[in-house]
Amino acid sequence: MKFRFFAASFFAFFSTVFSALAQIPADVPLDYFLFPIKPGQQNFLSGSMGEIRPSHFHGGIDIKTDGVEGLPVYAAADGYVSRYKQSSYGYGNVVYLTHPNGLVTVYGHLQRFAEPIAGFMLRKQYEYQSFELELKPEKDIFKFKKGDIIGYSGNTGGSGGPHLHFEIRDKDDVQYNVLKFKFPEIQDKIAPTINKIALKTLSIDGRVNNEFGRFEFVPTKAGSFYSLKDTVFAHGQLGLEMMAWDRLDKAENKNGVQQVDLTVNGKLVYSHYIDAIPLEKSRQVSCHINYEVLKRYGKSFEKCYVDDGNGLPIYSQTFQKGKFYIKPNTKNDVVLTLKDTYQNTTTLRFTIIGQKPQFAGTTKKPKKPQLDFELDENILKVTANDTASKFRNVELFVGLKKYNLLPSYATAAGTVHLYDVRGGIPDSILFCGISKKPGIRQVVPYGQELSYTDNHVNVIFQANSLYDTLYLKTSQDADFFTVNDMFTPLFGPIKLTLKPKTLPTGDLSKASVYYAGWGKSRGFEGGKWENGTITTTTKNLGKFRILNDTTAPTVKLLMKNKDVISFRVRDDLSGLASYKLEVNGKFVLLKFEHKKALMWSEKLDKKVPLSGDVVLRVKDNVGNETVYKTKI
């Protein structure tokens, strides 16, 4: 938590109300739905509802299909097709079936649809001359009975392998825990596994083993219980994080844990139960987890405390939202309890001994003075090291005021000095002649609109852009524009305007904003030029650059005959925007699988052979076009 606003209490109230409402209706019997793959046989999952994905909570279950495509997918109950879509991204080929009780089942990554919806989709694709198409038929046009085949399992869209993605939602797109229906096809007698926990200091007087920061521990298992090898000494306000998973019988996949409870000295301080997630809030997984640890190290640690700005409806109301305070000279019994949907239970028990912060530790003497700093939530953590034998203070300048920061403790890296930036944003830090600037240009409170401008950028924050107060930093270095870093998540988009010192050469319509992630990765953001600046909308913080894309997509013919023509199509920078195939002057549908960069034709009339001049037009996102011609 950084600053408190009314929004924080509103989120808490809304979460409580929504959690009470967003439950599977009690009048829906557990045997209402048929399992959609190989019903009556034991099935296996590669994903469960609510498990952590990089940008969202997983909304359903992923049912294994024996590593193959083309298994029949059955309607889970009587219903009508209210929506279906064909796409190379997301759920790929997906069907939404609405049932008489108002619930909706979702069948994603299908290889193909069953008739008559397959034929209707094909005719509409030819009518609109587009492969990417979403249809919402009128009620009762396409009816299916429980057990009817509605499609065949596949690997389309964003799927990483053959499987069926299956969801149960309500009319408001609240995604429910499918396994609550206790399908006998899924067996689970295995309790969750705790891989690691972390303790994080959440106040300036917070310490774990006499240090401020975040510290990981590996529990050991004895029988059915976990414990920590060593006693933990701590002080101040703390939060606990955990990295855990659940396995189902005869499957090695690491699935999510449904329920987590944390007690300190017998008092419940935190509880979450992932049973229903509104689709519109799924992205808020970014503040449920330690986002920075995920981005830096690829580890999914779930927070057992609730940050302000977190509006997920999965938490029970507890004192201090999971943040607990350790007093000096106290013994504190901590119990973390994990449960899966089938109530298999895992427990971790350990003790925290309250210990008053004290100046202690040693430092190795460097050859010359050293100064470093980092911002952790509201706390500026300054590490200084001197060649002298006597510890010195760090000088902090805030406006016209100078503060002498006493050392809080010492480590091998140096003395650590702590400062709460809510007392004033520092202009500079001075130690033994070394001066460094924190570079904080603006405090951006969450829940408010704000516009910031300097010589490099203009950033406009909407009321829903942030989860928490942001200490804004901007800079320009060579070709890169930096707005904070990639380790801070955004909930909603920001409007970003870049002001290059010199304009890109050539046609400005080919120059766009790209997001620079790890290594040499580049993500197309787009942008519109006006008065020497380019403006785009993004859901990322971090590094951006302006790049020219003057290279058209490449097209390679793979096959051509009277029945089918296929191509490999790639673009090296801005990405594909559109494509159109004509044979003998008439539109022919091209299906697209982006994972394989593969396009192949599907005829409307299977009896009419492909014959004549073939023209394929492919454009990228900045208008570079390739026209490929051949004959059949």
UniProtKB/TrEMBL annotation:
Question: Which Pfam families does this UniProt record tie to the protein?
Answer: Peptidase_M23 (PF01551)
Q: Give UniProt keywords alphabetically.
A: Hydrolase, Signal
- GO molecular function annotation: hydrolase activity
Q: What class of enzyme is it?
A: hydrolase
Q: Which residues form the M23ase beta-sheet core domain?
A: 57-113, 145-172
Q: Which residues form the signal peptide?
A: 1-22
Q: Which residues cross the membrane?
A: none
Q: Which InterPro entries match?
A: Cell_wall_metabolism_enzyme, Dup_hybrid_motif, M23ase_b-sheet_dom
What EC identifiers does the entry list?
3.4.24.-
Q: Which PANTHER family match?
A: L-ALA--D-GLU ENDOPEPTIDASE, PEPTIDASE-RELATED
- Protein's name in the database: M23 family metallopeptidase
Organism of origin: Adhaeribacter terreus
Lineage, please?
A: Bacteria, Pseudomonadati, Bacteroidota, Cytophagia, Cytophagales
